[in-house]
Write a structure and sequence with these properties.
Layout lengths: L5 E3 L4 H7 L15 H7 L1 E8 L10 H18 L4 E3 L3 H5 L6 E8 L8 H9 L2 E5 L22 H12 L3 E3 L5 H10 L3 E2 L17 H9 L4 E3 L3 H4 L7 H13 L6 E3 L19 H11 L2 H18 L4
Parallel strand pairs: 1-2, 2-4, 3-4, 4-5, 5-6, 6-7, 8-9
Length: 314
């Protein structure tokens, strides 16, 4: 097998390290993504999400987000000098052969309440990609599981405009359908960090064909996620299921617009052959059986980095 590298669009390591602050990022068996795993598996860029669980009291959610930012800088970047903060195409291009890029993202704007100043603070602290919701409603928009299904609020529109000004990725994963279309209309840099094809697996978290085509039409990217429930509709899935979603998005014209967003450390169940980041080479090997080396490079890295880099090229 040709050794390749990858850009993973989503993981929840910071959430787990927030809940258990004794976890060591180097090789903890409580984590699916570790420094050792990234180093051994061929990672080039890993996105790290700030996700605030609903169990955190609303008035404390911004403080929780700040704590996760501190964990990111102190226990990941500072503790492992080979991990480098990536905020632009220039940062990604500057990574040495033995270095791994780390992108800081926000999964859901629950942490900012209805205070745009809190969003600005997180952006100043290094966040360059923002998901507007988790699964339910907040002051910005409704999430994918919110029965009301509303789109962006007036405050949500202000948030998207701020992301445009700061040249940030605006993540549509977890959004309601109406919220998705509002973002497509308003955002300069929309993308889906970790979502699959609704036609193959009709879960509200997945993207319908017209949504996938809309992201393709604006030269964006979709990160196929390894969550079994979004791959097969059950708690069990295989790499074959990942390839099914990949091929389906390609059939809609997405060869240059699809990557991966594992959601490691954010799920209860795992794909049988992909229990952790250590197993990424197994996915790489399967990809090389069905696709050219150029296509595999696009799926693993080039499509994601192209979309991320386009934020600073316009």
């Amino acid at each position: 097998m040709v050794f390749l590298y990858f850009f993973d669009g989503h993981c929840d390591v910071l959430y787990k390290m927030f809940l258990d602050q004794q976890i060591d990022f180097y090789d903890s068996d409580k984590l699916q993504v570790t420094f050792k795993g990234l180093e051994k598996s061929g990672a080039k860029i890993q996105s790290f999400a700030i996700y605030i669980p609903e169990s955190v009291y609303p008035d404390m959610r911004f403080q929780a987000a700040l704590k996760m930012v501190d964990i990111f800088y102190e226990k990941i970047l500072k503790a492992f000098p080979q991990m480098k903060l990536v905020q632009s195409q220039k940062d990604a291009a500057a990574l040495a052969a033995n270095e791994i890029g780390a992108i800081l993202t926000l999964e859901g704007c629950d942490a900012i309440g209805s205070d745009i100043g809190k969003l600005k603070t997180l952006l100043r602290l290094g966040v360059t990609a923002v998901g507007l919701t988790w699964n339910y409603a907040n002051a910005v928009a409704d999430g994918a599981l919110e029965p009301r299904g509303a789109g962006l609020s007036l405050f949500g529109r202000e948030v998207v405009k701020q992301l445009n000004r700061q040249q940030c990725w605006c993540d549509v994963s977890h959004l309601s359908e109406q919220g998705f279309w509002d973002v497509i209309e308003l955002a300069n840099f929309p993308y889906a960090s970790h979502s699959n094809a609704y036609t193959l697996c009709p879960h509200p978290r997945n993207l319908r064909d017209d949504q996938i085509k809309a992201l393709i039409d604006i030269n964006s990217v979709i990160g196929i996620t390894f969550v079994p429930e979004f791959l097969s509709g059950t708690a069990s899935a295989s790499i074959t299921d990942i390839l099914r979603h990949l091929e389906y998005i390609c059939s809609l014209g997405g060869e240059n617009h699809v990557g991966f967003g594992s959601d490691f450390d954010g799920t209860t169940h795992a794909v049988k052959e992909l229990q952790s980041v250590f197993d990424y080479p197994q996915l790489m090997e399967e990809l090389t059986k069905y696709y050219s080396s150029n296509q595999v490079e696009k799926f693993l890295y080039k499509n994601m980095i192209k979309s991320y880099s386009n934020r600073t090229r316009r």
